[in-house]
């Protein structure tokens, strides 16, 4: 029988070491730089930091997801893919924090001083959760809501579906696959109580 920690470790590592824009299914395992992490055979600094980040932010992710009417497993998956649970993450495009929200988007969600506050875990999580919920209410479809979160709602409207951008085409199935894994791990944890 697997422990929740074992399940969590393996699914986190499997999802997080993939090259940006590619799902793990598209990458031969031995080509991944942290293949030993995927197999659970490594205690590398990268693996250990990722797990510390996860356990540090997991309670807040769950609480904020519930507050915004989202499934915790979905917000957990989004944060895993967006930032690897690193609250100081900054993308080349300028997205910030755990949920990798752009400062202009955060301002639109009412966040003051987003270049500072998106790095605050609870504020960044709340902003990302509010924006994801907003995308859900606009599109009423999780694939489209996630595509809009990643590429912007204008791109989803323009293409009348998931935009044909390589990053977005890979992002949506990766978040949904990891969501299913987190939901399964949650169900297993509840069943073992």
Automatic annotation (TrEMBL):
<dbReference type="GO" id="GO:0016829">
    <property type="term" value="F:lyase activity"/>
</dbReference>
<feature type="signal peptide">
    <location>
        <begin position="1"/>
        <end position="25"/>
    </location>
</feature>
<dbReference type="Pfam" id="PF01464">
    <property type="entry name" value="SLT"/>
</dbReference>
<dbReference type="InterPro" id="IPR023346">
    <property type="entry name" value="Lysozyme-like_dom_sf"/>
</dbReference>
<feature type="domain" description="Transglycosylase SLT">
    <location>
        <begin position="61"/>
        <end position="169"/>
    </location>
</feature>
<dbReference type="InterPro" id="IPR008258">
    <property type="entry name" value="Transglycosylase_SLT_dom_1"/>
</dbReference>
<keyword id="KW-0732">Signal</keyword>
<protein>
    <submittedName>
        <fullName>Soluble lytic murein transglycosylase</fullName>
        <ecNumber>4.2.2.-</ecNumber>
    </submittedName>
</protein>
<keyword id="KW-0456">Lyase</keyword>
<comment type="similarity">
    <text>Belongs to the transglycosylase Slt family.</text>
</comment>
């Amino acid at each position: 029988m697997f422990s929740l920690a074992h399940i969590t470790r393996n699914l986190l590592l499997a999802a997080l070491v993939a090259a940006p824009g590619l799902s793990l299914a598209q990458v031969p395992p031995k080509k991944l730089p942290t293949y030993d992490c995927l197999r659970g055979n490594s205690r590398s600094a990268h693996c250990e930091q990722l797990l510390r980040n996860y356990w540090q932010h997991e309670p807040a992710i769950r609480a904020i997801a519930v507050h915004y009417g989202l499934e915790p497993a979905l917000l957990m998956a989004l944060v895993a893919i967006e930032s690897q649970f690193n609250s100081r993450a900054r993308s080349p495009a300028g997205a910030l924090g755990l949920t990798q929200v752009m400062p202009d988007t955060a301002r639109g969600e009412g966040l003051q001083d987003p270049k500072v506050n998106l790095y605050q875990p609870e504020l960044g999580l709340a902003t990302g959760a509010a924006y994801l919920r907003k995308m859900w209410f606009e599109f009423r479809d999780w694939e489209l809501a996630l595509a809009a979160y990643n590429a912007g709602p204008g791109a989803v409207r323009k293409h009348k579906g998931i935009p044909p951008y390589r990053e977005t085409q890979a992002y949506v199935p990766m978040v949904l696959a990891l969501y299913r894994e987190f939901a399964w791990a949650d169900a297993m944890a509840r069943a073992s109580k």
